[in-house]
Each structure stands twice: as structure tokens, then as C-alpha cells.
Design brief:
With 263 residues, the chain is an all-alpha fold. Helix content is 78%, strand content 0%.
């Protein structure tokens, strides 16, 4: 009977031991859970910091890119303005050059003999009947001048295609006119302004070959050389310039030819 209390005491001891073990295990799990929460919070905080840093870097990059785009827009606007200015200046210079040549042409024409001034005197014996030969169609210098100046005004107004057609029509309609060499010359200039160097060369060569004594013949040869240079025919251009110097050594075109041959 005395053994019974010992058995009960031993059982209670085991129960208490188990209870303490369970409590310790629970405490350890609670402490581990606490540590896990802190680690998670730390990682979240670190992630937030890194995310903010990345956002700041991205924002700075966006601002820098926007500034670069704005700078490029401003540069593009500036360059567009320069191009427009240069285009206007080029057009103005070309217009001034055309006006100069037209004015020069007018002055030269005043020095050229006009057909009306060279009308021969009638025979002294008007009363004597003479068998008349078939009459040639008499040209009208005043009408020719108006037609020529109309074509020249088209060129001056930069209506190049119309001017080329008008000069060509004039040359065909009035092959014997004193204005035809000039019309042929301006026909070549119109083709050159239209960037058709081959037609320009053909027209200017007609002036130099058909009317070699005309005031525009040296300039016509110079224009031929210019077109040959633009067509990359350096040998042909040199030959034309040398021919110009040989035929018209005292002309203004010869001075330009010498300068070109020195280059």
C-alpha cells in the first residue's frame, strides 16, 4: 500500500516535465515568429529604399531625356531658321544677278546697230521704171524688240520654262534679227537656271559659232565651260577656257577664264 503514493508522485512529475517542455517549445516558436516578422520588415524596408532609389534614378533620367529633347527641338528650330534665311538670301542674290544681267543686256543693246538705222537710201532716179525683184518680208524692229523684251521679262520674273520657250520661239521666228544672238544667249542661261546643262551648252555654242563677233560670244563660251565643269568634264572645260582666251583675250570673260585656269 505504501508504493501507491510514489507512483502518483512520479506520474505528476512526468506531466509537469511534459508541460514545461511544451511551454518552452511554444516560447521558442513565438520568439522565432517574432524574429521572422522583424526580418520581413527589414527586407520590406530595404526593398522600399532600393525601389525609391531606382525611381529617383529613373525620374532623373526622364528629366535629362526631356531636356535633351527640348535642346534638340531648339537646335532644329535654329537650323530651320538658318536654312530659311540662306534660301531667301540665295534667291535674292540670284534675283539680283538676273536683274544685273538684264540691265546689262539692255545697255549693250543700245550700243548694237539696229536694223532700222541701216535702211538704205532709195535710188536717186525714182522716176525711172525699174523691174523690181521679189520683195523680202520686211521685219519690224519695234515689234521684235517688244517680243524680245517680253521674253526677257519672263526670265527676270523667274518664269524660266516660259522664258526658254519664248527665247527659242524668237530665235526661230527672227533668224536674221540683230536681237537673235542675245535671245540665243538668254535661252542658254534659262536652260542653265533649269539645271539642264546639256541644252545650255548647245544654246551657248550656237552663239559662239554663229555670231563669233557678237558681244555675248565670250560670255557664251564662259558659260559653256561652267556647264562642262558641272558635268565633271574638266578636260572639256579647260579646252573651252583656252579657246576663249585665244579668241577674246581682252574681254571681261577672258579675265574670269584666266582665274579659273590658275586653280
Amino acid at each position: 500500500m505504501a508504493a501507491t503514493p510514489m507512483v502518483c508522485r512520479s506520474g505528476r512529475t512526468r506531466v509537469l516535465a511534459i508541460a514545461f517542455s511544451l511551454a518552452a517549445l511554444a516560447a521558442q516558436q513565438a520568439q522565432a515568429g517574432l524574429f521572422d516578422d522583424e526580418e520581413a520588415r527589414r527586407q520590406v524596408k530595404d526593398l522600399a529604399v532600393k525601389t525609391n532609389e531606382r525611381l529617383d534614378t529613373f525620374a532623373k533620367g526622364q528629366i535629362e531625356l526631356a531636356n535633351q529633347i527640348q535642346a534638340l527641338r531648339e537646335e532644329n528650330s535654329r537650323l530651320r531658321g538658318q536654312v530659311e534665311t540662306l534660301t531667301y538670301e540665295l534667291e535674292s542674290a540670284r534675283k539680283r544677278q538676273q536683274d544685273f544681267y538684264v540691265d546689262l543686256d539692255g545697255r549693250l543693246r543700245k550700243l548694237e546697230p539696229q536694223a532700222a538705222a541701216n535702211v538704205e537710201a532709195r535710188p536717186a532716179e525714182e522716176s525711172k521704171p525699174v523691174v523690181e525683184a521679189p520683195r523680202k518680208v520686211v521685219s519690224d524692229p519695234a515689234a521684235e524688240t517688244r517680243e524680245y523684251e517680253a521674253a526677257l521679262n519672263l526670265f527676270k520674273a523667274n518664269k524660266l520654262k516660259e522664258a526658254a520657250a519664248a527665247f527659242e520661239s524668237f530665235a526661230k521666228a527672227h533668224p536674221e534679227s540683230t536681237l537673235t544672238p542675245s535671245a540665243q544667249y538668254w535661252l542658254g542661261n534659262a536652260h542653265y537656271a533649269l539645271h539642264d546643262c546639256k541644252k545650255a551648252i548647245d544654246a551657248q555654242r550656237v552663239v559662239a559659232n554663229k555670231w563669233p563677233a557678237h558681244a555675248k560670244a565670250p560670255d557664251a563660251l564662259l558659260n559653256v565651260a561652267t556647264c562642262q565643269q558641272e558635268l565633271a568634264d574638266a578636260k572639256g572645260a579647260k579646252s573651252t577656257l583656252e579657246a576663249l582666251l585665244a579668241k577674246y583675250p581682252e574681254s571681261a570673260a577672258a579675265t574670269t577664264a584666266r582665274q579659273r585656269l590658275k586653280k
